[in-house]
Amino acid sequence: MAHYPLNHHLRTPYRILAAAAGLYLALAGILGIVVSAGDDFFGHTAGDWALGLRFNPAGAWLTTLLGLAVLAAATRGGNTHHQLNVVLGWVLLGVSMVLLAFIQTDANILNFSMVNVIVLTVLGLAVLTAGLYGKVGSEKAQRAEAASVR
Description:
This protein is an all-alpha fold. The chain has helices spanning about 10-35, 55-75, 80-100, 115-130, 140-150; strands at about 50, 55. It has one domain. The radius of gyration is 18 Å and the shape is elongated. About 40% of the residues are buried.
């Protein structure tokens, strides 16, 4: 079983970092929905950009939903934040790697560019890191953990 530190002293800044990542993804996605309105849902246009990311409606909706999920986990806090952000961090990294594999093909149904891949990778790492250090436990459990590490 993986070892996650309990009550890490930087869990609040990491939680704020995850919330900022979620807010950025949600805002970019919402603006992407606005600028790509009227396009084909899985279309391949080159001109729909929002907050530095390229979108079609499908990519904008996916980005919005991922951003809202990360933001909800960060605002919930506690072990919910820990568990969801570990999963969502891996999801963001996985999506970015799949998109990287399909970026120059017709399989790029989300119309993402290399900038999208880089941003999703960086934000995925930030969310994953926030989740890894967000676990909360009792003082007794923290002391037991510290004793077992030594």
